[in-house]
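Structure (tokenized):
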């Protein structure tokens, strides 16, 4: 018995797969997946000061911007049709503590940035706020550490307060990236109790303990704090697959609106499994290490930057991602309009 989805006609010569590849127009007609700026979320690093634009050495082309310059970048993102930006603060070392007090300060860098962007641009672009303690802890972990262990429930109390100050400052999406158990439900309740029913929850549901986050930790300045410690007691084992479905099921029950897989290209199988199992929006994060790899190869002249960037993002759409967080977002939005890109 042949499978109902298999073609009914016989093999070569009656079936010639190359007919639909012959010309651009027919390739366009049969194309199954597309990539547009609307699918993209652009992560931006903010730092203190004025007129500051600092390069991140392990991510050539990516900068940290002080608020004034950050607003210019957001204006460019809106002009190029990018749907949302995701903000990550570089907290000065002097404001990092073991208890991460700065995380819940309503006037911290993150909240000031959210407020300024919201005031200037209203709802023209989505504002995704990261919830986790690593930008604020002196030890670089995403939660509180007691007896050398990242403790779950006490961390959640702080995450809830962090989420509420961010929502108050104008975040449209709260994105918990900490991987504590039960934080989605607790944060949903905290948001609802403080009148933020409309704020979305995008859960980093299947977030792996990945070495591809290295350059990001340079960008937010948590690499030095973390030292040789790992996040393996809370982020997922790269060998796991079924477990990702379990994580997603729990986060959906707890109230996540969007679930995320992270990193991107090495985990496309996970995106596909989630898409086939749950009828919900899925995000994928092409992380800092992926950006660094593609950029380094292109800088060496080993790969064609424009082509591999577009192909890597299309592969994520093909795997089933509705939306993609990528440091290439603004660059790709230029390519999709047929324009050259110069980083600002
Ligand atoms: C931390 C966080 C990380 C990233 C986003 N949020 C790093 C980590 O878990 O150590 C990684 C993003 C990237 O690598 O681009 N809460």
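Design, position by position:
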């Amino acid at each position: 018995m042949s499978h109902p989805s298999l073609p009914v006609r016989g093999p070569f010569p009656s079936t010639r797969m190359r007919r639909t590849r012959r010309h651009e127009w027919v390739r366009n007609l049969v194309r199954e997946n597309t990539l547009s700026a609307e699918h993209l979320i652009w992560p931006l690093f903010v730092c203190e000061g004025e007129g500051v634009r600092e390069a991140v050495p392990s991510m050539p082309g990516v900068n940290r911007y002080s608020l004034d310059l950050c607003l210019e970048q957001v204006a460019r993102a809106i002009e190029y049709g990018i749907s949302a930006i995701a903000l990550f603060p570089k907290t000065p070392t002097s404001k990092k503590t073991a208890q991460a007090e700065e995380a819940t300060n309503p006037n911290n860098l993150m909240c000031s940035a959210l407020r300024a962007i919201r005031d200037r641009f209203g709802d023209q672009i989505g504002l995704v706020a990261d919830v986790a303690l690593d930008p604020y802890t002196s030890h670089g972990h995403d939660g509180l550490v007691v007896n050398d262990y990242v403790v779950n429930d006490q961390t959640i109390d702080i995450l809830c307060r962090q989420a509420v100050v961010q929502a108050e400052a104008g975040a449209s999406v709260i994105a918990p990236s900490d991987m504590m158990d039960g934080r989605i439900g607790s944060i949903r309740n905290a948001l609802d109790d403080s009148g933020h029913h409309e704020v979305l929850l995008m859960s980093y549901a299947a977030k792996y303990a990945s070495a591809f986050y290295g350059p990001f930790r340079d960008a937010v300045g948590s690499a030095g704090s973390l030292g040789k410690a790992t996040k393996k007691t809370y982020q997922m084992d790269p060998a796991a697959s079924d477990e990702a479905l379990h994580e997603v099921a729990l986060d959906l029950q707890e109230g996540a609106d969007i679930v995320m897989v992270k990193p991107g290209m090495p985990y496309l199988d996970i995106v596909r499994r989630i898409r086939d199992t749950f009828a919900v929006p899925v995000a994928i994060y092409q992380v800092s290490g992926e950006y660094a790899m593609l950029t380094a190869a292109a800088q060496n002249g080993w790969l064609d930057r424009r082509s591999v960037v577009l192909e890597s993002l299309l592969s994520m759409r093909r795997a089933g991602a509705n939306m993609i967080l990528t440091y290439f977002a603004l660059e790709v939005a230029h390519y999709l309009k047929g324009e050259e890109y110069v980083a600002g």
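Reviewer-requested clarification: The mean pLDDT is 96. The domain at 34-336 is CATH 3.20.20.70 (TIM Barrel).
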